[in-house]
Specification:
Blueprint (H helix, E strand, L loop, with lengths): L6 H8 L5 H11 L2 H17 L7 H21 L5 H36 E5 L6 E4 L5 E4 L4 E5 L9 E11 L9 E5 L3 E5 L3 E7 L2 E8 L2 E7 L2 E7 L3 E6 L4 E6 L6 E4 L2 E8 H12 L2 E4 L2 H4 L2 E7 L3 H12 L2 E5 L2 E5 L2
Parallel strand pairs: 5-6, 16-19
Antiparallel strand pairs: 1-4, 2-3, 3-5, 4-5, 5-8, 6-7, 7-10, 8-9, 9-12, 10-11, 12-13, 14-15, 15-17, 18-19
Helix pairs in contact: 1-3, 4-5
Length: 334
């Protein structure tokens, strides 16, 4: 960390009292991702002692429209011979219009950047995973090509909600007040837990929840109906993209596709599901020739150092033809 960047310097920066050179130093310091969280912590402290005005954008817009209408009426009704009165109306309308425009712009900026200010976001790229220590003592492992978002402040004291797109495994710490831990997704389902270990898969083509230990409740919307389902350890629940639960099985291992240290464990995994894995985790486009082939099942455990080794193993396990050309993969019978 650059020792020239102190809390006092950043407080002056927030108050717009820094020089161009100091602002450049701060910008360079912020290029390191590890400094960003400290920046927002100090920003929160400064704002706590220097309360800022949060504009009401809807009210500002209504005021602006009202003043526009007043200005138009004034222009029509004012006599052309009364230039002084017209100038006064024009100046008054101009001042109010400028003020309303400023409030509106500030409100729009707050709206656009609110997620970045209010939430801490973790992202992984294709071929990357990340271990995350959450503020309440819980742990998460974010798998490839996934995003996890949580409140930047108050997590563990006000709520324990995270928003997941992709895949992640969680080990949730129990709290003395039995505070719920909730995983939300864009697929209109939630996983509600009190203290457990589980994995969540939330992609466009569907969702899965695998419970390793403890107890979870899945809350989901099917059509216009809200439903719930209690899971037991060792169970896997799958939901399609309309949130229809179409499979609930007890597994030998509490996950039907497990990856760790380049080892893949397949438990009753269809080739179609493997295709989704290849698309989401490796950025490939997968075509399976035939519905019957797409429903063939893989079982077993093996290592693969890269995606080409994985494709070769799939070919050998199912005795099928696998052709890769760049990012295009075609799976077919011999």
């Amino acid at each position: 960390m650059n020792t020239n960047i102190t809390k006092e310097l950043l407080f002056n920066h927030f108050a717009r009292k820094t020089s161009p050179l100091q602002r450049q130093l701060i910008n360079d310091w912020l290029k390191e991702e590890k400094n960003e969280e400290l920046y927002y912590q100090w920003l929160e402290q400064w704002e706590h002692h220097n309360l800022q005005y949060l504009p009401d954008t809807e009210e500002s817009l209504n005021q602006f429209i009202g003043f526009m209408e007043i200005g138009q009426e004034t222009a029509i009704l004012t006599s052309p011979f009364n230039s002084d009165n017209e100038n006064r109306h024009s100046q008054r309308w101009y001042k109010w219009a400028v003020a309303a425009s400023i409030f509106l712009c500030l409100g729009l900026l707050t709206f656009v950047f609110r997620n970045h200010l209010y939430y801490q976001t973790y992202r992984t790229q294709i071929g990357e995973s990340q271990a995350i220590n959450l503020p309440d003592g819980s742990k998460a492992v974010l798998n490839e090509n996934s995003t996890l978002r949580l409140a930047r402040w108050g997590f563990g004291s006000e709520n324990r909600e995270v928003f997941l797109t992709g895949e992640a495994s969680f080990s949730v710490k129990h709290t003395l007040d039995n505070q719920q831990f909730i995983v939300k997704s864009e697929n209109h389902f939630e996983v509600v837990v009190l203290g457990t270990e589980f994995s969540v898969y939330a992609r466009q083509q569907g969702s899965k929840v695998v419970l390793k230990k403890g107890k979870v409740r899945i809350e989901y919307t099917e059509g216009n109906t809200k439903k719930q389902l209690i899971m037991k350890p060792g169970e896997l629940v799958s939901l399609d993209n309309q949130n229809h639960i179409h499979k609930k099985v007890a597994l030998i291992k509490p996950q039907n596709v497990e990856t760790k240290d380049n080892r893949f464990v397949f438990e009753e995994t269809t080739l179609q599901e493997v295709g989704y894995l290849l698309e989401e985790n490796y950025g490939l486009t997968v075509e399976i020739k035939g519905d019957e082939l797409s429903q063939r099942v893989l079982m077993g455990s093996f290592r693969a150092e890269n995606v080409d080794e994985l494709l070769k193993t799939i070919s050998e396990l199912l005795n099928i033809n696998v052709v890769r050309q760049g990012n295009q993969v075609i799976l077919s019978e011999y």
